[in-house]
């Protein structure tokens, strides 16, 4: 399925949308497609909004942001996000990372809440009344709780999957498994479509099973400028450059015009990225294999 | 100097929750000097990383390649942090107050922020669960107010505040005190850079400057491009 | 470290002991060593007590059993267990599998309890008052809870580890990770000690990190008659044969005399197992590799 | 016959939580006849297994080799079962009662058992979370009492009870009714084998005997050693 069709069928105005991936495997391709399809009133959820949500906020897709750390990792601010929050044009609901992880864990387990030992002494519960507490039925102590997060759609970029959508991920795993299982619909975007036999040769590597996947899309370099372990490195120059682009509304609008609205799809976007292969293509560091025989 | 002082705080074999920047430099300096068996854990899920380049974010792929273990973030927070396995946690922040509370959320009112900062990330739970918190931050009256605008990370477990001029430590009641001075710095310099009436320990330590080995490792091996070393 | 030393130092009379592994990777070697060292008053916990706990119960090591399914998988009963329960000489605390999994999950996360949607309409809470309930602070609904399980010592058999104890497991994973993280002390018994570089070549495969391991022991075939994926198959003949052995107290005593008390260690036990290699050695089914480069 | 009847209950593409023995045979028969895309999930964590031999336990290594996914048991129970992803669950038991409740725990009093059975395993939560429960059990008055001695798995989601003589189904109030007969069996035979006054549907179905293909697959391919096929 093309990413255009996958987004058209699975992402609707007003949806609660998750594009997950902690630094690693962030589906910029899907974010751009959502911007191009001019989705509106989305509730965007993600631990680290990153550049892709900054772009989606700038493009007017977002009504609300649910998050735990909104910065440009290793660089500085997300300026579209900051403008929206400081100008109070974007609703926010804020947790810590553990709180967001716990919300996805509850959603994935289809429990209404998750329990954690957290927030004592912090001002986060004052800022967010959805952080509550529960009394342990054994010890009587009070523990923090967060409510389940069950997105309408979660988009996960994976290194490889078979045609059914059985997806394998290695390197940083973030909360992709929990987000996918918590979600009503799941789009898996992959670097490589592989034969089912490749997946079956290493079943412990499968993070997301086809049984929960709504659409499988092949989009090599679909996570650029984030990275895919074993495929390509993070485009740090772009992350550094975003500071300048995002600081200025006109610059940012120009970026979106050229690299998002101005292209039909990821293939056209890729044509505009010079020397990616020589700059970022991953070196070889193969794993030691294991034997699954009996 | 800050990186060297921070490195000296780490004992061999400890399990350290690391952020990017100076804490990462400090840990890797410690690993190459007195603490070769330090176990570094990153919020991103990489355990026992020995990165072949200076990582530019805690999600850098160089932290994964050749690490001992990579786990999902549910495991990082539940099995390592909440489980109590982390001995040392590094934190920084836009504001650090008299009681070691840290603010990385907003300057001004939460609902009408003057400056919106990134937020907690894992900092709230690191402050609550790591056995010993080391804060690394540069001194200035704005960065060290009497009371932070927003408590992102509570100060109870703070053991040292490593600044660019001195080291502060909490007294019995958790109030930060001047404890040690960098070479060439006087107590008055530090007091002037703090937004409350900073008290000093009766006996102030004098910290040794970085050794030649520490400097050489920091400047030539760990951060040759001076991404994080400025002072 | 020898298994004898590892058990002597880490397993004490009166301890709460866990030998985990769902059918796969059950450390019979450690169970036998505990029997040989005549540990007493142990609280044995495990989802599926299996033959090894049947032997430990018969040998008088156990004061109490905490479990969720006590049978000889695919064969029939654990007769030493049945005699002890029907004769009321063994205390039991009984859950379902999900309940036991949840107890380990709570223990691993160092929460006092875990929440699950379970037990409505079953008699299990009547039989076990430690199954309680909690009210969701968001929806008001009642959900079941189980208390955390934090063993004194957990013993895990793994396919490979480095000298520090960073252990990799593939195939069925059971609840080994949760049990190990829940535990005060952890003994890792491995088929193969490998160079740290092997572990570091595939960090996503590491299930138990050295930071939580108290002792590492190398004991090839240490899971026999259970199995180790990629190393050897389950000795089903032994499982079938246990029905006869365990049905009769004298037969069972004779088995322990010959194969447990009558040998010094696993090496001597192995000498008494004829034709294991030709019967059970695993065939080759290598996984497809992955690239960890960047 | 039971295996063939159970296999016919499965629709192509369904996600089935499988136990060992007859349910496993039934699923593999269905996969080779009308439901090639059945997804089998075992309590042990193997998903999408296509075992090259008849598994002797749900933890058989043959269920792992070549499967689509293997996950830990916390994921099996939380992400698959409690999440509601399982469409069909198979259960058996020492006792099945008038309302489809199952006992696999004890015969007699819980504290003073006449016979101690293995216990729940995952049966309690399978009965609660799988969308449709199929029970497979042989008829006898002892195995089908009016009321089980201990409710291990509640009967609310039971849709069919496949026995060696007939199929029972719950009515609107959840009471099991005789619904269909095997070839050569009369309603009286079934009623005599049940420990309560079994009512029958107004119109009883007659089940077709296994086809030649079903028999050949079961006897020659799936269970040539007759480990589970006895009838």
Report on the structure:
The complex is a heterotetramer, with 2 copies of chain A (294 residues) and 2 copies of chain B (231 residues). Chain A has 12 helices and 12 strands. In chain A, helix 5 crosses helix 7 (176-182) and helix 9 crosses helix 10 (249-261). In chain A, strand 1 (16-19), helix 2 (28-36) and strand 2 (42-45) form a beta-alpha-beta unit. The longest helix of chain A is centred in the middle third of the chain and has 13 residues, at 97-109. With 294 residues, chain A is an alpha/beta fold. Chain A has one domain (3-95, 150-280): Glutaconate Coenzyme A-transferase. In chain A, the strands form 2 sheets. In chain A, strands 1, 2, 3, 4, 8, 9, 10, 11 and 12 form a 9-stranded mixed beta sheet that branches. A 3-stranded antiparallel beta sheet of chain A has the order 5-7-6, covered by helices on one side. By secondary structure, chain B is an alpha/beta fold. Chain B has 6 helices and 14 strands. The longest helix of chain B is centred in the N-terminal third of the chain and has 11 residues, at 22-32. Chain B is globular. At the A-B interface, helix 4, helix 5 and helix 6 of A face helix 3, strand 9 and helix 4 of B.
What number of structural domains do the residues of chain B give? 1
Q: Give the % helix of chain B.
A: 10-25%
Report the CATH superfamily of chain A: Glutaconate Coenzyme A-transferase
What is the N-to-C succession of helices and strands of chain B?
HEHEEEHEEEEEHEEEEHEH
- Class computed from helices, strands and strand pairing of chain B: alpha/beta
**Per CATH, which architecture of chain A?**
3-Layer(aba) Sandwich
Number of helices of chain A: 12
CATH class of chain B: Alpha Beta
Short description:
The complex is a heterotetramer, with 2 copies of chain A (294 residues) and 2 copies of chain B (231 residues). The longest helix of chain A has 13 residues.
């Amino acid at each position: 399925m093309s990413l255009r069709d996958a987004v058209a069928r699975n992402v609707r105005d007003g949806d609660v949308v998750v594009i997950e991936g902690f630094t690693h495997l962030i589906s910029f391709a899907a974010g751009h497609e959502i911007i191009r399809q001019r989705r509106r009133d989305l509730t965007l959820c993600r631990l680290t909004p990153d550049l892709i949500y900054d772009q989606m906020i700038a493009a007017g897709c977002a009504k609300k942001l649910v998050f735990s750390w909104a910065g440009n990792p290793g660089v500085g601010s997300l300026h579209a996000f900051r403008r929206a929050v400081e100008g109070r044009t974007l609703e926010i609901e804020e947790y810590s990372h553990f709180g967001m992880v716990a919300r996805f864990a509850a959603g994935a387990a289809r429990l209404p809440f998750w329990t954690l030992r957290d927030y004592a002494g912090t001002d986060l519960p004052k800022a967010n009344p959805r952080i509550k507490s529960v009394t342990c039925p054994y010890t009587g102590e009070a523990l923090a709780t967060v409510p389940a997060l069950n997105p309408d759609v979660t988009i996960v970029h994976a290194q490889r999957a078979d045609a059914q959508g059985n997806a394998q991920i290695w390197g940083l795993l973030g909360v992709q498994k929990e987000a996918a299982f918590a979600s009503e619909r799941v789009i898996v975007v992959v670097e490589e479509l592989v034969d089912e036999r490749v997946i079956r040769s290493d079943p412990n590597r499968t993070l997301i099973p086809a049984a929960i996947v709504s659409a499988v899309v092949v989009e090599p370099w679909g996570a650029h400028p984030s990275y895919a372990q074993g495929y390509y490195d993070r485009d740090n120059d772009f992350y550094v450059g975003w500071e300048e682009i995002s600081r200025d509304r006109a610059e940012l609008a120009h970026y979106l015009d050229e690299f998002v609205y101005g292209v039909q799809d990821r293939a056209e976007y890729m044509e505009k990225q010079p020397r990616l292969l020589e700059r970022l293509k991953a070196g070889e560091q193969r794993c030691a294999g294991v034997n699954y025989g009996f | 100097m800050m990186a060297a002082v921070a490195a000296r705080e780490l004992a061999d074999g400890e399990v350290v929750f690391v952020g990017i920047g100076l804490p990462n430099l400090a840990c890797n300096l410690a690993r190459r000097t007195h603490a070769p068996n330090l176990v570094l854990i990153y919020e991103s899920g990489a355990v026992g990383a020995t990165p072949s380049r200076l990582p530019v974010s805690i999600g850098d792929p160089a932290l994964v390649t050749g690490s001992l273990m990579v786990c999902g973030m549910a495991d990082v927070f539940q099995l390592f942090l909440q489980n109590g396995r982390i001995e040392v946690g590094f934190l920084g922040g836009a504001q650090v107050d008299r009681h070691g509370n840290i603010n990385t959320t907003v300057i001004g009112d939460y609902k009408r922020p003057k400056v919106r900062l990134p937020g907690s990330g894992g900092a709230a739970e690191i402050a609550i669960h790591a056995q010993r918190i080391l804060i690394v931050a540069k001194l200035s009256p704005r960065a060290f107010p009497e009371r932070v605008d927003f408590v992102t990370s509570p100060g109870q477990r703070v053991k040292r505040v490593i600044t660019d001029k001195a080291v502060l430590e909490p007294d019995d009641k958790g109030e930060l005190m001047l404890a040690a001075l960098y070479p060439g710095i006087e107590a008055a310099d530090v007091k002037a850079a703090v937004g409350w009436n900073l008290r000093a320990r009766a006996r102030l330590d004098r910290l040794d400057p970085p050794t030649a080995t520490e400097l050489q490792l920091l400047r030539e091996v760990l951060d040759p491009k001076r991404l994080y070393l400025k002072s």
